[in-house]
Amino acid sequence: MPSLSPRPAHTTADTNRRGPLATPAEVAEYLGVPVKTLYQWKYRGIGPNVHKVGRHLRYRWAEVDAWLNAQATYDLAV
What we know:
It holds the Pfam family HTH_17. 45% of the residues lie in helices and 13% in strands. The protein is α+β, with helices and mostly antiparallel strands.
């Protein structure tokens, strides 16, 4: 029987770079919209990129921020 080696430990640098996955409730609070709106955006394909982890929806914070930055339609610094 092959010996089982332990999983490699994640370093804090990996965790800081990757960040935790966010729940729909966390993203909704961050964006200031109802959770139902996130589900509608997912259905329409217009919201931030969402991932299924098992049967749960999760968001990557970097993708939420990138989507939010792409929503800017005009420059306020003019």
